[in-house]
Amino acid sequence: MLSVEQLTVEFGGSPLFDKIGFLVNRKEKVALVGRNGAGKTTLLRIIAELQQPTQGRISLPKDTVIGYLPQQMPINDTTTVVLETQKAFEHITELQNRITDLNAELAARTDYQSIDYHNLIEKVTELSDFYHSFENNNFIADIEKILLGLGFVRQDFNRPCAEFSGGWRMRIELAKILLQKPDLLLLDEPTNHLDIESIQWLENFLITSNSALLLVSHDRTFLDAVTTRTIEISLGKIYDYNVNYSKYVQLRQEHRQQQIRAYQNQQKMISDTENFIERFRYKPTKAVQVQSRIKQLEKIERIEVDLEDISRLNLKFPPAPRSGSIPVEIENLTKKYGNNIILENTNLIINRGEKIAFVGKNGAGKTTLVKCLIGQTDFSGKLKIGHNVKIGYFAQNQADLLDNNLTVFQTVDNVATGEVRTKIRDILGAFLFGGQTSDKKVKVLSGGEKSRLAMIKLLLEPVNLLVLDEPTNHLDMQSKDVLKEAIAAFDGTAIIVSHDRDFLNQLVTKVYEFENRNVRENIGGIFDFLKKKKIENLNELGYDLSKKTSIKQENIDISENKISYEQRKEIARRQRKAQKDVQEVETQIAALESEITQMTMQLDIAENAANHNFIILYQKKQHELEQKLYEWEILSEKVEEWQKECF
Description:
The chain has helices at 40-47, 81-86, 90-108, 115-132, 139-149, 166-179, 196-208, 220-226, 245-280, 287-299, 366-373, 408-413, 424-430, 447-459, 477-489, 501-504, 526-533, 545-556, 562-602, 606-609, 612-646; strands at residues 2-11, 14-24, 29-33, 55-59, 66-69, 184-188, 212-216, 229-234, 237-241, 328-337, 340-350, 355-360, 380-385, 391-394, 465-469, 493-497, 510-515, 518-523. The protein is an alpha/beta fold.
């Protein structure tokens, strides 16, 4: 369906991609992964025809409908939620109007025998058939289904879009794209602004969708659930494996280790051969053997080890000035927006040096309390900031506040003071903005690169209270690990708003849960809190656990519950797919074993045993067999898992 051929993209003479190519079949679900700045967003933009490559081309069948959700996009604030969502069907409305106009023209004409009249009839028939090919012309039902799935309630449908935050407005854009039922979906970090119920709904929607999918996400669980193939972009090349992300990481590492072993073996063989040639080069009795070895070296196909991106973010917060023993003290704080109470009689005390987490359902008041802390909104009650407390604040939309027209260097230079200005290049290099990258405009940076740049501004002035609101949004997995290490090493106090369980693990020692306008203190780490709540994921906070238990009970009875039936139907489909994959791998294993058996027999021939090319091929086949056996083991376990879920 989608063909990427010899694609090259250069910025300032440096290649982002170098003649990459791959195919995506209909209905195939593909994860597109790589470090921030590797080119994932650029590739999606090229496929969506919003950007041109330096060389190469993208091929798609005629009339292919593409749905593209970027990380950031302009949002229309002038309509209501439902009216804005209805724009997804503008093309159908236009088609209906076109058919009406043509029918009116037919009714007015009297040249029934003319060629033009008959051509007009054929055109009306063609457009009418196309119009009726849509499964459902009552679009309101589809709109309600999608909006409810993405977390809206019916009371939201007629509210102006301007009343919603940027994250909720991105959900409206996602709804419009899903409603169009495109042939190819290009989704760039679609889960950044979704809570767990919406993520699970989107997960199921994408799994059962007939659309092909290219998905960019740093949510490992979401990638594993939705995609069955992984393409990594690294250092201008791609690595393509027909497995989900977690399995890809394992297979990719094994493949690299095999490459290294094969490379080392070949290098030893080359060295031995070169030593033989050098030793006997001038001995007439060895001339034939020397020439034979020289020809062998010339024919050897040199093994290359894939380059590995070892660049690493170097993040370290400056020493924190000493603050009072209680940096933050809140007593009976209440915050309202009109008649809507967000927080009511909130009380908490944060001690110097603590690393704490604010957790809870979206809209429960976490960001609101943060804004109270930094003085961005009014409230009633008491909020005391301790002696000598200097706050460093990272907002959810911090990256969006950067000036797109400045370069990376100018962005930092404009806020740097004193001696720091002499070290800007070193600071940028530590944040992977070295060399020509520092001269890039902010507007061409990826979401993760913008987040790193915004983080630099936070580091330019020493603070002793870090307030970080969703700091991991857009960051790749390696950058999240580095940020976690830096916060752990920070000798000040830190408040972290996040739903990322792994990020908070072994980082925080106290958890404040936001629920039903209240804030409750929980002493201990994040998993202590999770164990106490008996929940799997922080994003479930605030949901009715009895409802969750009820749903589990309903799933047991297929005959009485339609949702359970659909779930089992989907499990059965996946089980059949897994069994088919196992059979395919078993066929490949049998072929490799047969080939290796024949080659083993040929090794008894002295000529083959001395043929280095034959030995290398023999070793390569053995490595392939090892990899296929490992793949078979993983797939077999997958089949067993599906069987357990079914029964």
